């Protein structure tokens, strides 16, 4: 048995007493994936479910989430553009002197 966020799950007997890695969606604790040394094993089977989601996750996604993601992406874009400007530097245009190529102007 393993405990995840107040819930109990059964794992393969082979894995009992060993250090394992688990992966799960914090919004849905019904599915717990089990890994050991990079190998995936059978999913943990729920024995006692007290929490359907991670206790720190909100019950519903806030309406502001898309705005937050949008502003985050906008900031990433600005940072990338600034990085490119620094890498490319500025273009320097040298003032060309007016030179006459021949004796007579065209």
TrEMBL record:
Occurrences of domain Transposase-like Mu C-terminal (ranges): 2-39
Q: Which Pfam families match?
A: Mu-transpos_C (PF09299)
Which InterPro entries does the entry mention?
Transposase-like_Mu_C
User: Can you say what this protein is called?
Assistant: Mu transposase C-terminal domain-containing protein
Organism in which the protein naturally occurs = Metallumcola ferriviriculae
Ranked from the top, the taxonomy reads:
Bacteria, Bacillati, Bacillota, Clostridia, Neomoorellales
């Amino acid at each position: 048995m393993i405990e995840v966020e107040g819930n109990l799950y059964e794992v393969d007997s082979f894995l009992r007493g060993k250090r394992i890695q688990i992966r799960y969606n914090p919004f849905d604790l019904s599915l717990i994936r089990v890994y050991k040394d990079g190998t995936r094993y059978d999913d943990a089977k729920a024995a006692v479910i007290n929490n359907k989601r991670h206790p720190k996750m909100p019950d519903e996604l806030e309406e502001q989430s898309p705005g937050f993601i949008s502003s985050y992406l906008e900031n990433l874009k600005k940072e990338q553009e600034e990085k490119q400007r620094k890498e490319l530097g500025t273009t320097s245009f040298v003032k060309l002197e007016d030179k006459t190529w021949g004796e007579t102007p065209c």
